[in-house]
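S1.2 Input.
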Amino acid sequence: MNLKNKYLLLLLLFFVIAAVIRINLDGLPLTHPGNIKAADPVYHTTITDIIKDTHQWKYYPDYIAFGIEKSINQQPPLVYTNAAMLSLFSSIPSWSTVYFIICLMAALRILLIYLITQEIFKNKKISILAAALYVIPFKPDIWLYETYIGFWIQVFSLTFLIAFAWLFIKYLKERTNGNLISLSIVTTGVIASHPQDLLYLVIPALYLIYDIIKRNKENITKVKKLAYLGLAPGISFLVLLPWFLFVWRTSQYNLAWNSNPFPTDYLGGITTPGIQFIPWFLLVLAALGIIISILAKSKYKLGLLVTGYYLFFIIILPRFLSSPHYLGRTGSLLPVALAPFMAVAIYYIISQLDKLTKIKIN
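S1.3 Output.
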């Protein structure tokens, strides 16, 4: 078996292990900050049952809407419609189908971490290390925060964000139409699963538009490439725009500036994942990996730029918003952002030990 096939088998094994670990979180104790028996998962299951019973997604039934006619369903459609279809065809209860889909989507991050790390460092050993670091959690209520606490639709949308980061880096290196179409697909996934996460994509999307206009002289080429990038997300956004406006008007999200930063351990009334959630030795490894990457100068600058952009949104910006809790919760992706750099540090340490001991490490 050649080395490439070994890596593929390892990735498949990691994916299966990660999915099984997440599927078996049901036995966790009923402790703060949450668990899969909390209110959010029950609500997600109820929405799936509504779609099964009424064969539509747009409106709540009377028992949810308190008798109000055509009360708009405030939940985005992607997760629930797929879970409802799976439940209808399989006769498996909604709770199980929703949770199963979420666990598969969460486990998919293993593959995406590998792809991102490979795109940045071009080293399969570092990439497989990064994927391995995300497989088995050191503490489930931290490492698997969204699944554990019940932010299930965020699991979908934030996984799409990881895919966007990988495709964004890939596009800047290759600039193919296939990259643009793939970016449009994952952006549409964000819109249909948890559209608040579009906030993270505004600046990258504007840059992509600028890059397309700047690099292509013929107008017809510009139009085609912009269509590849924006047609599917644009149609999805326009179709769901009335729903977006209604939900935003009735929601608690507020992007107004707050001059008095919130403390790091409190964001909107809920404990949120952050640096304080990660064991100190992993933070040391991540810091060492970042330093190594910086010392490599321009070699890894794209990966550092994407990571820095993400960290700004989850660590700095939320402290200065009137309603900071939503962006703060996205800190659950912090292990994903740091895993590649932890892997770089581990690989560097092993390499140095190999040089000192003169032992060949395959």
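S1.4 Remarks. The two ends are 15 Å apart (CA to CA).
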